[in-house]
Amino acid sequence: MKNLIRILVFLTAFQVNEALGQTLYGTSTGEVKIYSDTPLETIEALNQKVGCLVNPATMDLAVQMKITDFVFPNKLMQEHFNENYMESEKYPTANFKGKIKEQIDFKVPGTYPVTAVGSMTIHGVTKPFTVKGNLVSSGNSLKIDFKFLVKPEEYKVEIPSLVITKIAEEIEVTGNISLQERKTN
Amino acid sequence: MRIQKNQFSLFLTGCFLLVGSVLFIPKANAQDDLLSMLEEEQSKDPIYTLATFKATRLINGQTIETISKNHLNFWISHRFGAVNSGFLANFFGLDEARIRLGLEYGLTDKWLIGAGRSSQEKTYDLYTKYKLLRQSDRFPITLTGMAGWGINTMESGYVMESGSVMKFSNNLERYTYWGQAFIGRKFNEKLSLQLVPTLVHYNKVEDPSISNDQWALGIGGRYKLTKRFTLSGEYYYAVTDPIAYEVSTRNPYPYHNSFSIGVDIETGGHVFQLHFTNSRGMIEKQFVGQTVGSWENADIFYGFNISRTFSFEKGAKNKDK
Questions:
Q1: Which of A28, A58, A82 sits opposite B30 (nearest CB)?
Q2: Based on the structure, what is the number of domains in chain B?
């Protein structure tokens, strides 16, 4: 048993080192906007502290953000979003991890349509997810844009009947992430 | 020893390769590594605790909460007559009410100013509240300070609820000041508690045996039953000297500690607070030091506070959800 634990620890350490030894593209100031529109109400919130890392060698991609970093113009709404809907103390982050399907050499500047296949975790619920977007490379920096719809219901985000007409069934999520080349190690 | 270690790591590497090639762990782990690196980067910022209490007021007293910048709260508070005042005579107290109307505005996310007018002793009040420290995943409590001022605009020589006659010889005597520190902690999603050391200074008291400086300690808390329904309770222990009063006036000391219990119901932009309390006054000078009712005598007042929040922040087209 002890050995097994050691192996697992070692394994993890080895993996981290492998990732650290490579060139990555990363940021901690990506932008993700959520938007809900119904005849009764338009709700918008912006998160400007989205973290993202892309490993150009493996085309692996990870995006993570804190739920509490979403800023609403109405702070009461923000409080409800965190307290009643997203339960951000229990589930502080949302993330996506996956792989970009296309093989792209980021060193070649250009605009590429990309598809990331992986899994998304929101409100503690993880589901397989595919995101389509655009990637603009300028050699040492990347820009990723994407837009998708997400149903709160699918991630067990409960919306009480009292406000059901004010919150859209599908929330539009728009991302705008600029990544810089990072040489770790 | 060193050779053994090397052998061990060789063995481990072997195991790793074996396990890895069979289970495709490297592929899955590479993404997890990116995520854990992100996690590490993001964990540098503290996560602040949100919504320790539903509103800036618990029942009669205030809470550690302030309101957000450019947000306005409108408070409508009622305390009806005593529930033991009879059915025919007073419809269990609902025939009469003390009212306080109040406004508070967030200058910053941590600093608010407020004003109100109570029909109880026709009193105007002004106050300011500032959040000094915030609870987060690295700090255990929230600390908020408050300072307030009130002016009693009753005619000189009116009879107070305690039965004493109050005469003012100048306007300064109508003033009362109060300061409070709120030390609060959200223990978990449901339970929040706060301690409230309080000092109320009355420029004029009804009898020399009553100190102008009224010290008190408040304790308050809430327990969330559901997402929108919360139980709350509040007790203010006032440091008084009843014997001195009795010796001086030959009357029993008229004031009691304030105790209130209630529920909060939240519906988007409104918070409804319904409660039972032995205090009819809704500002600190009244409920901390001048609560005439007592639970033992069933001098219980039914009351409610309604808060409505408006946002004046740019981009806030709608006021609630």
A1: A58
A2: 2
Query: A132 lies in a domain?
Result: yes
- Entry field: residues in chain B: 321
Q: List CB contacts (< 8 A) between B134 and chain A.
A: none
B70 versus A160: the higher-pLDDT residue is B70
Other CB atoms within 10 A of residue B84 CB: 14
Shared domain check, B199 and B113: yes
Q: Say if A29 is an interface residue toward chain B (CB within 8 Å).
A: no
Q: Please answer yes or no on whether A19 and B33 come within 8 Å at the CB atom.
A: yes
Q: Is residue B274 part of a domain?
A: yes
B211, two tokens: 């100190």
Q: Which runs of consecutive H residues, i.e. helices, occur in chain B?
A: 2-23, 25-42, 87-90, 242-249, 284-287
**CATH, residue A59:** 2.40.128.110
| ipTM for this model | 0.72
Residue A126 lies in a domain: yes
Same domain, B160 and B288: yes
Chain-centroid distance, C-alpha A83? 20
Residues A92-149: pLDDT tens digits? Answer: 999 999 999 998 888 899 999 999 999 999 999 999 999 999 999 998 899 999 999 9
Q: Say if CB B136 and CB B48 are below 8 A apart.
A: yes
Determine, yes or no, domain membership for B49. Answer: no
Kindly state the DSSP code that residue B160 receives in the 8-state scheme.
P
A43 touches chain B (CB under 8 A): yes
Which of B26, B319, B320 comes nearest A15 by C-beta?
Answer: B26
Question: For residue B117, which amino acid is it?
Answer: R
**Whole-prediction pTM:** 0.80
Count of CB pairs separated by less than 8 Å, A with B: 141
Segment B93-120 mean pLDDT: 93
Mutate to test the interface with A, among B15, B21, B321 (most CBs of A within 10 A): B321
Residue B166 lies in a domain: yes
pLDDT per residue as tens digits for the range B40-71: 888 888 888 888 998 999 999 999 999 999 99
DSSP annotation of B1: -
Give the residue numbers spanning the domain of B17: 2-42
Is residue B63 a part of any domain in this protein?
A: no
Q: Are the Cβ atoms of A28 and B42 closer than 8 angstroms?
A: yes
The CATH number covering residue B251 comes to 2.40.160.40
Find the domain containing A177 and state its range. 24-183
Query: Torsions phi, psi of B152, nearest 5?
Result: -90, 120
